Amino acid sequence: MKIPYRQSGATLLVAMIMLVLITLVVINTVNLGSGSIQTVSNMQYRSEVTAAAEEVLQETISSKRFFETPTTVFGTVCGSSYNAKCIDTNGDNVPDVTVALNPPPTCVQARVLTNADLNMSVKDDADCATPPAQEAFGMAAPTNNSECARSMWEIRAEASDLVTQASAVATQGVSVTVPKNSVDTACP
């Protein structure tokens, strides 16, 4: 008669260890995938906020208001400021991003244009020209300065997402020909 062979359970032990190792590998893979998804989401939020800031900068420099009234660039109030714009990025009619011009548009430099600097074939330049003054005996007096100035402005937009707290800052410089009296009040 044969004596039954007694098994020690080594196969069961090896199978359990392999199952634990496979479980750890799967958990680690899921965690790495979640981290990648979070990174991509954060990049998308930042991209949306940056696009909103650039959109507001383009809107600002397309208007005369930034050099005429630098502290009230936009006609509507967003939050508590006339220098902020509320942007709806996902189309649900609820503001998602606030973009503020902070500090207000700043004139960095200005120079009064001479009549020689103007291109008289361009209507705006011709409007700036100062007509020659009459001197005694009918002789024209030379006039040097025109009625316009070339000003350089720095506009800085700070954008922040109200939900994700993503933020971005965009700065734009722009050169604008403005009436001389605008330079006197807004430029150094």
What does the model show?
With 188 residues, the chain is of the alpha+beta class. The chain has one domain (11-186). 37% of the residues lie in helices and 28% in strands. The chain is built from 4 helices and 7 strands; from the N terminus they run ααβββαββββα. The chain has helices at residues 10-61, 65-68, 123-128, 180-186, and strands at 84-87, 97-101, 106-114, 133-134, 140-141, 145-161, 167-179. The strands form 2 sheets. Strands 1, 2, 3, 6 and 7 form a 5-stranded antiparallel sheet that branches. The chain has a two-stranded antiparallel ribbon with strand order 4-5. A hairpin with a 5-residue loop joins β4 (133-134) and β5 (140-141). The longest helix has 52 residues, at 10-61. The protein is rod-shaped and about 135 Å long. The termini are far apart. The model has no long low-confidence stretch (mean pLDDT 83).
Tell me the distance between the termini. Answer: 113 Å
The number of distinct structural domains comes to 1
Apparent shape: rod-shaped
Query: What oligomeric state is this?
Result: single chain
SSE string, helix = H, strand = E? HHEEEHEEEEH
Q: Tell me the radius of gyration.
A: 33 Å
The biggest beta sheet reads: 5 strands, antiparallel
Contiguous helical run count: 4
Tell me what portion of residues adopts beta-strand conformation: 25-35%
How many DSSP E strands? Answer: 7
Q: Uncertain spans, ≥5 residues at pLDDT below 50?
A: none
User: Pairing-aware structural class of the strands and helices?
Assistant: alpha+beta
